C-alpha cells in the first residue's frame, strides 16, 4: 500500500485533533469545578466556557473535514448534526438534515463543501444540508450577499489548476481532490443571495479482500 503526501496530511490532521481534544477537555473539567465553587456564574467564566465549547466543536468538525476518510467508516447523522450546530453558531448557521448516516468519504466532502460555501457568504447566512436520494448531498444556503471566489469554484467544478493555494482556501483544493478520489461530481449555482451546491457520490467500491469474502 502506497501512502501519498495527501494521506499523510490527513493523518497529521487527525492526530492533531485527537491529541488536542484531551487537554482541552481537561480545561473544561477545571471550568466545571470553578463554576461549582463560584457563588454565581461570572462573565469571565461564561466567556471561557463558550470559547472552550467553540474550540471542541472546531476540532471535531476539522477531524471529519481534514482527517482521513476510510471507505468503511460511517459518520452518524445525529453526531454530524450536533457538531455542525456547535461549530456554526454565529452569523453562519448550519442545519445537517441528512436522512441517515453518511459514509465517511461522503461526510468529508460535505464538510469541505460547507466550508467552501461559508467563504462564499461573507456576511453570513444559513445553510441546510439534505440527502434527497442515495448518493446525493444537497447544500442550500441563504445569505444577505454572496461573493463566490470564481477561481476556487472553477478548480472544484472543472479541475482548473490553481496558481497558488492559500491557507484560507485549502478547503477548495481538498474538496477537488476528494471528488477526484471518490469519483464524485459537484454542481454549484449562485445568485445574489443564495448558493446551491449538489454533490453526487458513487457507491463505495468493495476492496478485493472483502469482495472475495462475499458469496
From TrEMBL:
Which GO-annotated molecular functions does the record name? transferase activity
User: Where on the tree of life does the source sit, at the highest rank?
Assistant: Bacteria
Q: Which UniProt keywords apply?
A: Transferase
Q: Which InterPro entries match?
A: ChpT_C, HATPase_C_sf
Q: Which residues form the Histidine phosphotransferase ChpT C-terminal domain?
A: 78-191
- Among the Pfam families in the record, one is HPTransfase
Q: Which residues cross the membrane?
A: none
Protein name, UniProt field: Histidine phosphotransferase ChpT
Which species expresses this protein natively? Amaricoccus macauensis
* Lineage, uppermost ranks: Bacteria, Pseudomonadati, Pseudomonadota, Alphaproteobacteria, Rhodobacterales
